[in-house]
Amino acid sequence: MSAHPHFHYMLSSPHHNQYGYIMLGNEKVHHIDDIHEFYRALGYNDKISKTGLLPEEFIWDQYHKNKCEKSDVCLQIKIIEYLSKHSPKFLENYAVECEHWLASCMTKWTNKSTECTDCITDNK
Predict the structure, then answer these.
(1) How confident is the model at residue 67 (pLDDT cuts 50, 70, 90)?
(2) Which residues, other chains included, contact 81 with Cβ-Cβ below 8 Å and sequence gap of 6+?
(3) 28-34 — which CB contacts under 8 Å span 24+ positions?
(4) What's the pTM value of the predicted model, to 2 decimals?
């Protein structure tokens, strides 16, 4: 595993063989059993839902589009936190690597890195 893992998930194409999984490269790390709970873990809540913004639109708006409030790094941390709570396999296989990566992220945040302007670790 590299120093900076990049997890992605497939929730937009029901017929895709990776649908419903959090992936690391081509490896299926975890199957998402409750999609609503997963989206809540990424910050999508009832208040946002009532605005009419769909979960994937919210994630794009928060983590991916130009000049968004949070970076993809923040999204990766949210996914890692979700996996830590819901996947014993993840903890068994990736815990040590992710601890190092999260420590690196905290160092960037402490040093006021430009990619950490509104980091979720602010509340820790």
Answers:
(1) low
(2) 41
(3) 29/83, 29/87, 29/89, 29/90, 29/93, 29/94, 30/83, 30/86, 30/87, 30/89, 30/90, 33/86
(4) 0.76
The tokens describing 26, both together, are 């081509």
Q: Is 82 helix (H, G, I), strand (E, B) or coil?
A: helix
- Spatial CB neighbours of 87, under 8 Å, sequence gap ≥ 6: 29, 30
Count of residues making up the chain: 124
Identify which of 74, 68, 60 has the alpha carbon closest to the alpha carbon of residue 109.
74
Question: Which residues on adjacent β-strands are paired with residue 28?
Answer: 23
The pLDDT value recorded for residue 45 is 94
Span 31-41, pLDDT tens digits: 999 999 999 99
